[in-house]
Automatic annotation (TrEMBL):
Its main location: membrane. The keyword Ribosomal protein does not apply. It catalyses: ATP + protein L-histidine = ADP + protein N-phospho-L-histidine. One of its GO terms (molecular function) is protein histidine kinase activity. SMART domains: HATPase_c, HisKA. Its EC number is 2.7.13.3. This is histidine kinase. Residues 22-126 form the Response regulatory domain. Keywords: Kinase, Phosphoprotein, Transferase, Two-component regulatory system.
Amino acid sequence: MNRWNGRGSVGETVAGVQHARSAVVADSDKDRLAATTAALAAAGFNVFPAVDAAALAAHLQHHNPSVAVAESSLAHGLRSPGVPMLLILASQESLDLQEVESWRVADYVISPVRSGELVHRVETLIGRAAERARSRGEIEALRESLRNVSSAIRETNDPQLISDHVVRGFGEALNVDHVWFATFRDERVPSIRAQWNRPGLPLLPARLGESENAIIEAANRLWADADVLAVADHREDPDSKIAKALREWSGELNPVSTVLLPVGEGATALGIILLSTVQERHDWTRPEIALMQHVAGNVAHGLIQGHLISAQQRVLHQLRQLDKAKTDFLATVNHELRTPLTSITAYLDMIQDGSGGPVPDGIRKMLDVIARNSTRLRRLIEDMLTVSMQDGSNLDLKPVDIAKLLQVVVATLRPLAESRHVSLSFTEGTDDIEVTADEAKLEQVFTNIVANAIKFTPEGGRVGITSSVTDSEGGGLALVRIADNGLGIPEHDLPHIFTRFYRASNATSAAVPGSGLGLAIAHDIISRHMGRLLLDSTLGAGTTVSVELPVGGP
């Protein structure tokens, strides 16, 4: 069993492969320069000689040779020559390894060097450069393929689709025979199984079975070490622990090469990816491992994100079902309450009208109390019915004269204001204000707001209504303000004041009657008209409610 240790050969990359065989030779020793030039020319190279560092740099820049052979002292200080470099060192001369490594592909010989050996070393350097260029091209192609896999993963929140993308992407990009992926029992991700196989090969088992605990332990160990388990050839050790485990798990899988890649987040792994060949050996390279680990990180993030979104969608669906059940319940209850209440109020009207005979004064006062509470109950039922129908009802849009509408609301509520000794006034703006709206629903809005203002204003107080037109980026706005000098609303209640059934704490303590639906209904109706309902209140000083409506309608 082998583990990827991150080691790779040092200094073996070149900028490109040259089609024309040419060489730059730089040497301050004229005899050695001539000998080296002659040896390379005899081997078919077009040679550009140089006697100093400046000439060497100029030739490298202008001729783009296949190789450079240079006296070590002349090559010192070169920055990324871009071609394979063969250095000629004196017998006791030391080599600056750090500088040579920065040149990517380089070698050295000790002077004096035979012509045959020189040509052989040059040919070897060029071959290494060509192989390195080919390898770099393959890695770049792999990087692009796996970049596409990561992009596909990021474009979806479906956990199964993410898993299918990664197994297919790994299989096709890395040219393996099997790719198998599974998540563990983990609350962060759903249970997922996905696999891809080269056509004609059997499927691997969907479950880990008795191997699950051992696989989870191995995945957590690899994840903690930021490592993978990479085996280039199981045939070299057919009885290794991993080879036996794979055979026992799959029954039919006889892998040649294998990678076990942990998928994790935070402190622990949440799944594992198996890549395997069953026909040819695969020498796993460091770039391949690094790219697979990068994609695995995207897989973990995508699965966790998708799982959270799925959970949120389930909760949202449940909340919608609960809201529908609540609405249906309210509609049913309203229907059941309205029927007996209609009968009660009808008989009450008959009694008060004397249909059953004269009513004593003491009894009449009792009947007045019953009548007032019946009216309150009817309004509460109507508010609840409005709430139950709010989301599904359409707006009956038509031109509405705001001034006339407010005059109707004031006339309707004036008896309530007078009974509480509250001054109620309406000051009409200088401009005629007409909006496209549902007149009945707007009347309900202003009736709820004004009635609230009257209820929360003590005796001797005042409620004032004004209307005007203002300009905005989207066109004209009709603005109606209802201001009172009543109780006001505590600051901590303000964020919740438009919530259904919510009542301000001072309203409850002051025993002001109400259901907590009036402002919620008004807010919903104004929002559906694409308007705004704003509230400004100071405890003990009063409240101003502002209604903004687009003149052109919703």
